[in-house]
Amino acid sequence: MGEHLTIDRDRCMGSGQCTFYAPNTFDLDDISVAIVIDEHGDPEDSIRQAIEVCPTRSIARALAAQGAGE
Asked: Residue 70: what pLDDT?
């Protein structure tokens, strides 16, 4: 099992801090809520920084479910 990025869309206030620190990983959708566009789009330290500066702590890493047959 690996990890993947999750965003609590109910908590996200759309500050855009994640897009500043990791612009190839995060973006804001049409209603200014953060989305993950590429989990590996930026260096790990940039992604970690984006997670740490999120003012609502909406970004997290979660264990990815293992698919059938893996």
From this structure: 46
- Averages of pLDDT over runs of 10 residues in the chain (70 residues) are 89 97 98 96 97 97 66
Reference 15, options 38, 35, 39, 33; nearest CA is 33
Ramachandran area for residue 20 (φ above 0: left; ψ -120 to 50: alpha; else beta): alpha
Structure tokens at 35: 């989305």
Q: Which residue has the tokens 């809520």?
A: 33
- The structure's pTM equals 0.85
Domain range summary for the chain, segments of one domain joined by +: 3-63
What H or E segment, with its residue span, contains residue 61?
strand 59-63
Fold of the 3-63 domain: Alpha-Beta Plaits (3.30.70)
Q: By the 8 A CB rule, do 41 and 49 touch?
A: no
